[in-house]
Write a structure and sequence with these properties.
262 residues, alpha+beta, two-stranded antiparallel ribbon, 5 helices
Length: 262
Amino acid sequence: MFFDCERVLYRRRQLLDVVCQLRFPTILSIETKKPADFQEKIRASFPRYASHEEFLQPKVTGRPGAMKVTEQAAVTNHQFLSASGDWSVNLTKDFIALTTPNYTRWEDFAAKLDQVLAAFIEVYNPAFFERVGLRYINAFSRQALDIEDIPFNQLIQPAYLGLLGDDDVNERSFARSTQDVEVSIPGGCRLKLHAGPGMVKKNNVEDKEVKFILDNDIFMMGNVPIAHAAAALNTVHIQADRIFRGAITQRLHEAMDPEPLD
């Protein structure tokens, strides 16, 4: 499941999105007034602003036969976008997140994240973080990597394939074969994993190529002190690297054209 190796930069990386989300105890002022002070601190890098209401699923409590359904209020999601639109910061009363499809290396992502978190901490002074998470969503395209004739069982390690890992199966005969797992991993972290073939949408149009989706959400729970947030993020990043390399074969690794990091 884990593989320790030299870090590399993939010239043909297959990432759809990278998301870092930090959850904190509810700060009502984010919900009741626009975050103008926060915007001013990040506006040079994120000049575009939008907001929308997110309606949460009703909360169901009680025992069978005596269930109670409680409607939950809408939550305002403030979004700050880079000029190109390929980086976004989302802020609600419960979390802050940084998202991009143009991830290159952790150090570059972390530099932008440092700027965002410094502004957030200065303006809102959260007590602590309740969840520190880093999510990598990969969609491996055999067309893009020029390996169209290679089956997934030669590209993905058996533990992530389920029945697709058998040598005598025809992957085209599968309508669905996915895994959804949550498990404790080293470093005080947890992993939520989704893995399996699927199709993705580009500009709301479904791409007909079947890709292999590897969606890894690595996170730490509990009361993480603000001063320890950077260390927690570094820990989840290290675990994310180890899990990713443990999920792919050498053949897929080489197809993505790796080069050593300086």
